[in-house]
């Protein structure tokens, strides 16, 4: 079982990267993975917000929110765009 300490470490790692360009790999189930690029806009106590930069007209300028628990359970993976380092790993 995950401790509160591990969630606070993930939150701290995401906080450090606010304003950074990231690549999000979201597990959509049944072997489907969504890959998007965006910028971490803001962090809150239980979630963080990413503004998606996409060439698709439906996703352009869209903001999505994820919980830190999503990173802990590997529902999403967040990588820094410039050096492909995984954010939030323990």
- The CATH level-2 architecture is identified as Roll
The domain count comes to 1
Gross morphology? globular
Radius of gyration: 13 Å
State the separation between the terminal residues, measured CA to CA: 14 Å
Mean pLDDT: 87
Helix share of residues? 10-25%
Number of helices: 2
Q: State the strand order across the main sheet.
A: 4-3-2-1-5-6
- What is the helix/strand order? HEEEEHEE
Give a short account of the largest sheet: 6 strands, antiparallel
What are the segments in which pLDDT stays under 50 over at least 5 consecutive residues?
none
Which structural class do the helices and strands define? Answer: alpha+beta
In the CATH scheme, what's the topology name? SH3 type barrels
CATH top-level class: Mainly Beta
Short description:
With 90 residues, this protein is α+β, with helices and mostly antiparallel strands. It is 20% helix and 43% strand. Strand 1 and strand 2 form a beta hairpin.
What does this molecule look like?
- By secondary structure, the chain is an alpha+beta fold.
- Helices cover 20% and strands 43% of the residues.
- It has one domain (4-87): SH3 type barrels.
- It has helices at 4-16, 68-72; strands spanning 21-29, 32-43, 47-52, 63-67, 76-80, 86-87.
- The two termini are 14 Å apart.
